[in-house]
Amino acid sequence: MTPLFSYFRGEPPAGPGPGPGAGPATSAEGVSPPASPFLPWFCGFLVIAGALATFYAADTGYLFSPFSDAHDWVEQALAVEAKGDWLDYLWRPHANQRIPLARAVAALDLAWTREAIPTFLVAGWLALLTGVCWLLAVVRQARIPAAVATWLGCFAGLLILNVAVAEDLAFPVFSVYPMVTGPALAAFACLALADARRFVSPTFLLALAFAVVASAGNAAGLAVWPALVAAALLQRRPLPQVAVLLVLGAAVIALFEMGLPAPAPAGAADAQILAPSHIWKTIQYFAVYGALPWARTNHPGVPSALFGLAVEAAAVVAAWRTGRGEGRYAVVQKLGAGLVIFGLATAALAAVGRVDELPEPVVPIRYFPFSALVQVGLLLCCAPLLERFLARRRATAALVAVGLILVALQVYGAARFGRTSTAIKAAGAAFDRGDRTPEVVRFVYPDPARAAAIRARLAQRRARD
């Protein structure tokens, strides 16, 4: 246990160690971690297999008919086709947030309706892949042993492209979450890669651009700005860079929040918000958020909350101890700390704003892309521990087993999601046949008359094409 405690006390691992592809590196125990020539191929196979399971689940379960709030998107997209006021359409508030990215994809989906292209799936998948590619660029840039870099990329890819994200990819109404996660991940990766000695660098400008794109996803995307400022301060970046992040972030947040109704927690009266029972429920929600998708969240109990809280607490400690980025793992740990800050910020927003949607603190699986960033951030911050672990006997065999188990869980999860999407599709088909029973309506839209009118207009639009 000594390496673990010394690591969290902030002591760097011994040995200078070159980067991937630059020859062997010496670990803290003085033994070079094994770097089999087959390791990159095997890890690549794991990531591709897991990603294919996720994509297959999302593609086969994709909803081409509206579901929930997507009815509103379809109605507004049909209206803008007739009127042509695209700026008003993109900027129009959705509840107490703006979602111009989702509205743009909805309009594109309507234009491609004849081809039956899963437009939201493609958009969300490209967003996630963009973030993963930038993460891999950070790992490759770090001057760390090749075996460590390979396993970091493997497990990070399996986490971000986990089958738990299939719901967000397959159900257009939840597509805003991968559309925020991918650009936010890319923004923190670019910030970690940006040269602190230059006021303006290409990667710093890219970080700003990706942050703006993430802000256009939904209200949670706006949390990228305070998280970027906090990450920049933790990294001790030059004050001019911090000032740019602060000023631009404040401007973007003010722009997106201008004219919106004041947010209020769903279902809780003002007098109840500070009640001890409500505060405890909010803490439970926040804790279970960090457990997605590994613990039971439909009816979470104490074990789920403790597990999630342990993940979040470890991530906070690791980010605080390593976020400034020193030594060989600097760029990797900078990225990890940024992801932890952003992921926990979204957890706080969800806990405050969504905790009263149901009597129990149930955390929807659709928030998984954000909780995945906390877990990936913890993994990156603890990268030196992985190097020390790889110096032990049978370490590679253990990691191979973990990788195979994760892929097996991906396949199992894909099968389970198939049953969920089939039930929702069946409810939509029954609704179109005239079934208005509560069991069907709850899967479609709260206002069945309005939903029927929107679906009829969409059917006419498709028939015309």
Mind explaining what this structure looks like?
The chain is built from 21 helices and no strands. By secondary structure, the protein is mainly alpha-helical. The protein has one domain. α6 runs antiparallel to α7 and α16 (330-354) packs antiparallel against α17 (368-381).
Average pLDDT rating: 85
Number of strands: 0
Q: What's the number of domains?
A: 1
Unreliable residue stretches? 1-32
Concise overview:
This protein has helices at residues 2-8, 39-60, 70-83, 86-91, 100-111, 119-141, 146-160, 166-170, 176-193, 202-215, 224-234, 239-257, 270-273, 276-289, 302-322, 330-354, 368-381, 383-390, 395-432, 438-444, 448-464. The protein has 465 residues and is mostly helical.
Descriptive terms for the model:
globular, 21 helices, 465 residues, mainly alpha
SSE layout and pairing:
Layout (H helix, E strand, L loop, with lengths): L1 H7 L30 H22 L9 H14 L2 H6 L8 H12 L7 H23 L4 H15 L5 H5 L5 H18 L8 H14 L8 H11 L4 H19 L12 H4 L2 H14 L12 H21 L7 H25 L13 H14 L1 H8 L4 H38 L5 H7 L3 H17 L1
